[in-house]
Amino acid sequence: MQEIQLGEIESRFADIIWEREPVSSSELVKICSAEFGWARTTTHNVIRKLVAKGLISNNKGTVTSLISRDKFYSLQTVRFVNDSFEGSLPAFIAAFTKGKRLSSEEAAEIRKLIDEVGED
Q1: Terminus-to-terminus CA distance in the chain, angstroms?
Q2: Taking the domains of the chain in order of start, what are their residue ranges?
Q3: Model pTM?
Q4: In angstroms, rounded to a whole number, what is the distance separating the alpha carbons of residues 106 and 44?
Q5: Which of 14, 48, 93, 110 is in the most buried spot, having the most CB atoms within 10 Å?
Q6: Which phi and psi angles does 64 have, rounded to 5°?
Q7: Top-level CATH class of 8-69?
Q8: CA–CA dist 58, 49 (Å, integer)
Q9: Which residues pair with 56 in a beta bridge?
Q10: Mean pLDDT for back-to-back runs of 10 residues, the chain (120 residues)
């Protein structure tokens, strides 16, 4: 799968699609006018950009995602850990929790996740 990078506004636009899909491009024009103050052409340009990136499809004015929100953000997280921590999940967790106390609920949730994906 190709790497998809989104800017902040493209991410917010993608979130609108994920929350409402399938959604018509005309509905997106209305939403983006209200949310971002965009003209119709701006909305259609962003739709074209996200189609070109392989994130969404626009079939006869009906816009749907090609990648789920969970899958997209999972891929982004993996890329971040690989790029920033040489792929080391323990290094990422150490950096994330440095100077921050975990609640007992957070610690239990992390242990549960590790148990679910860990080797037997």
Answers
A1: 29
A2: 8-69, 88-120
A3: 0.76
A4: 41
A5: 14
A6: -140, 160
A7: mainly alpha
A8: 11
A9: 65
A10: 83 96 97 97 97 96 96 89 90 86 90 83
